[in-house]
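ok so I'm stuck.
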Amino acid sequence: MPDSKTLYTAHVHVTGGREGAARSSDGHLDVKLSTPGTSGAGTNPEQLFAAGWSACFEGAMAIAAKAKGVTLPEALAIDAWVELRHSNDGYTLAARLDVHVPGLDPDLARQIIEAAHRTCPYSKAVKGNIDTVVALA
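replied:
not stuck anymore, here's the structure
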């Protein structure tokens, strides 16, 4: 996009795939990786994606709430599920975010969630590419 400006670039070096390790260039991320569903000592790409999307989504919610003049509760939380699926077409992902916004009017919470889902970069990335559900819990 000619009018876009890069705000941040993450650089992560991975070796060994799902049974390897991932380390960011700044050293803040340094994790062992394991295949999902095994007894390996590391995390997996699905867990990392769930954490990343949830954190980003919460940030998008804060921007949406501020635009409405609303303060989000400190107890705001997101439960994320990322499924690794397999079918005749190969491997795919599916994801669900259950957003907990205690103390906020449910209709207002849904409006903020919908706005966040339209603006969150992760939500934009998955839109139309994987099965997703984002809901008020």
